[in-house]
DNA sequence: CAGGCAGGGTTCCCTTACAGAACTCCATCT
DNA sequence: AGATGGAGTTCTGTAAGGGAACCCTGCCTG
């Protein structure tokens, strides 16, 4: 947990970082997304400290991104993405695209996505929820919204 | 810098985290994107430690996300997004959308985007680069790519 | 029915990194 | 000549990550 509390800031980016901004959290989410659900499995794959893994899983569960489910009569648990968590995977897909483009080098992308709708290998691109056309950094004006704490 | 070096991992998500995964980096990028370019301006807005701000700016410049430009005959510098950096803003826009939906509560979003193409208030959604249809976590198969270090 | 085992954590110690205030440097402005 | 403003550096305290060892609980086996 970074000492400065991003969750209190009046900014959706900062608030999102409060949920998944800690080191390892996005990678934990990635692993759960691709089907790794158990403590030891995550620990072995990421080689993360068990202490930190415990903390991160707890944090993600507390924020409703993961769900901790018993899967046996013994005290055994699996972690699953909630709907809230599954929507965070959008973020991972965009990160993957950027990393593929700018950091993968000559070896190319470590992983590919095949889109069910068209069956092709593809990546994600950002489109406008209103007109469906592409929408990126240079294509928007930034305006204050209703949650922009009026009064100071 | 988190001690575990994500940049060495065979994963574009981990590599991207190596560039902007440290605390504050996304918020610095956000501020530069909306036009804050100078050290003191960033420091005052974020209330980040000057030491950490120095480290983060250096890291982002080293990774080609920001460019440090003199703007005076005196030793004065401004930070600007490179093309590589501007494409990272995609990530911020997705974070903003998720935070708006899941964390903003009754107050609503602190900030709105107006899309130049249609002039409407809108958010981003992920579409397929191949068929242009929506593409999210549940819509893809994950396959090994050429960069998936063969041999072990 | 005692011992072992597997899953899922805790505990402990060490080191690094963040927070925050104070200090420095340098070129102009007055 | 001294003040000012921008852009950092330095220093000290505290908290968080790394990593190894340990613990607990409920089956499974001999």
Characteristics:
homodimer, 152 residues, alpha+beta, Arc Repressor Mutant, subunit A, two-stranded antiparallel ribbon, two-stranded antiparallel sheet, 6 strands, 18% strand, globular, DNA-binding
What's the CATH topology name of chain A? Arc Repressor Mutant, subunit A
Structural class of chain A: alpha+beta
The coarse overall form of chain A would be globular
Largest interface: A-B, 86 and 86 residues
SSE arrangement of chain A, N to C: HHHHEEHEEEE
Side-by-side strand order of the widest sheet of chain A = 1-2
* Overall structural domain count of chain A: 1
Number of alpha- plus pi-helical segments of chain A: 5
Estimate the helix proportion of chain A, in percent: 25-40%
Round the Cα radius of gyration of chain A to an integer and report it.
18 Å
GO molecular function, one term (chains A, B): DNA binding
Keywords (chains A, B): DNA-binding, Transcription, Transcription regulation
Organism (chains A, B): Kribbella antiqua
Pfam families (chains A, B): HxlR
Descriptive overview:
Chains A, B: Keywords: DNA-binding, Transcription, Transcription regulation. Chains A, B: Residues 11-107 form the HTH hxlR-type domain. Chains A, B: Pfam families: HxlR (PF01638). Chains A, B: GO terms for molecular function: DNA binding. The structure is a homodimer of 152-residue chains. Chain A is α+β, with helices and mostly antiparallel strands and 152 residues long. Chain A has helices at 12-20, 25-33, 39-46, 50-62, 83-103; strands at 66-70, 77-81, 111-115, 121-122, 124-128, 140-144. Chain A has one domain: Winged helix-like DNA-binding domain superfamily/Winged helix DNA-binding domain (Arc Repressor Mutant, subunit A, Orthogonal Bundle), CATH 1.10.10.10. Chain A has five helices and six strands, in the order H-H-H-H-E-E-H-E-E-E-E. The longest helix of chain A has 21 residues, at 83-103. Chains A and B meet through helix 1, helix 2, helix 5, strand 3 and strand 4 of A and helix 1, helix 2, helix 5, strand 3 and strand 4 of B. The first copy, chain A, binds a DNA duplex (30 and 30 nucleotides) through residues 1-4, 22-24, 38-40, 43, 48-55, 72-77.
């Amino acid at each position: 947990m970074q000492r400065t509390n991003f969750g209190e800031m009046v900014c959706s980016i900062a608030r999102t970082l409060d949920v998944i901004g800690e080191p390892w959290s996005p990678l934990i989410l990635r692993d759960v997304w691709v089907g790794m659900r158990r403590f030891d499995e995550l620990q072995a794959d990421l080689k993360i400290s068990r202490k930190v893994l415990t903390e991160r899983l707890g944090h993600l569960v507390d924020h409703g991104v993961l769900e901790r489910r018993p899967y046996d009569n013994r005290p055994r648990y699996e972690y699953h993405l909630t709907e809230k968590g599954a929507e965070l995977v959008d973020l991972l897909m965009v990160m993957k695209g950027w990393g593929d483009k700018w950091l993968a080098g000559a070896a190319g992308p470590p992983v590919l996505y095949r889109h069910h709708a068209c069956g092709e290998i593809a990546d994600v691109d950002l489109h406008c929820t209103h007109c469906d056309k592409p929408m990126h950094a240079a294509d928007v004006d930034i305006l204050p919204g209703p949650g922009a704490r009026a009064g100071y």
